[in-house]
Specification:
Number of helices: 10
Structural class: alpha/beta
Largest sheet: 9 strands, mixed
Number of strands: 9
CATH topology: Rossmann fold
Oligomer: single chain
Radius of gyration: 18 Å
């Protein structure tokens, strides 16, 4: 199995990922609701075999099992695999890497890549992960590949977190914008990651031999709310945040104003 960067492994072995979508997590519930909304829009009805690659502690896997899907999770972090197995009866999980899947050719109906592209710094590794997803998909099967927006850190640290002025933070963000590689271990901002431009994500999906159906903004600008937890608890404000994300989800000019972007594609039938 390909080796995971030690800094990335150390970041996730803190165990904090399990709280990523909790109400107190900045924009986490928005990301989860919008992602599941998009999955519902495209996925055929259950039962289907779904492979959740880089699925972390199993939030999406558990949600899918509740809806009747047969879900198997793969993640390079053993802690996540154990958490996913405990998250929901019916979720099976194993340690593995997006670039080298154990599943057989054309054996899966849909693949989720809602994380691996964040941490594959080299384009060839990202293409390899997408190509592996295509390999295990049945003809006509769906792939959902998420990426972090190139400008997510700039907007978040300037508007919501108010940290862009701090020593070295601006320089870290500037280097990330210039080359895509975000060295987030510096100043405890995140971990080593790759931040995509929308056209770059589209190019990688198509470069792996997949048919691109859509590039969508997930959260829209709502991820920048300073008091997200309070606004999300207000039904009217929450619905406005969701409607805003839906309104601009396919506007090319607005894609970079979302923290995450999602490529929806299919394996060709021929």
């Amino acid at each position: 199995m390909p080796e995971l960067d030690p800094a990335i492994r150390a970041f996730y072995e803190r165990g904090e990922e399990i709280n990523r979508f909790s109400p107190s997590s900045p924009s986490g519930p928005l990301e989860f609701q919008r992602t599941t909304e998009i999955l519902t829009r495209y996925l055929p009805s259950a039962p289907l075999k779904i492979l959740d690659v880089g699925g972390g502690p199993g939030a999406y896997a558990a949600w899918l099992v509740d809806r009747g899907y047969n879900v198997h999770l793969v993640d390079p972090v053993l802690l996540h695999v154990n958490q996913a197995r405990s998250a929901k009866a019916g979720v099976s999980a194993e340690v593995g890497d997006a670039r080298e899947l154990a599943q057989s050719d054309a054996s899966i109906d849909a693949v989720l890549l809602l994380g691996p592209l964040y941490h594959l710094i080299d384009r060839q590794d990202r293409i390899k992960a997408l190509t592996e997803a295509r390999r295990v998909l049945r003809p006509g099967g769906w792939i959902f590949a998420a990426a972090i927006s190139r400008y997510a850190a700039l907007l978040d640290l300037l508007v919501r977190a108010g940290r862009l002025h701090q020593p070295n933070v601006f320089q870290t963000v500037r280097k990330g914008i210039e080359g895509g590689v975000f060295q987030g271990t510096q100043n405890d901002l995140f971990t080593t990651a790759y931040f995509h431009l929308p056209q770059e994500l589209a190019s990688e999906v198509e470069g792996a031999g997949l048919e691109l159906s859509a590039i969508l903004g997930i959260e829209g600008p709502g991820f920048l709310l300073r008091d997200f937890e309070s606004d999300w608890a207000d039904p009217l404000k929450r619905e406005t945040v969701l409607q805003t994300a839906r309104l601009v989800e396919q506007k090319p000019e607005m894609l970079v104003c979302s923290s995450h972007i999602l490529a929806v594609g299919r394996k060709p039938r021929d």
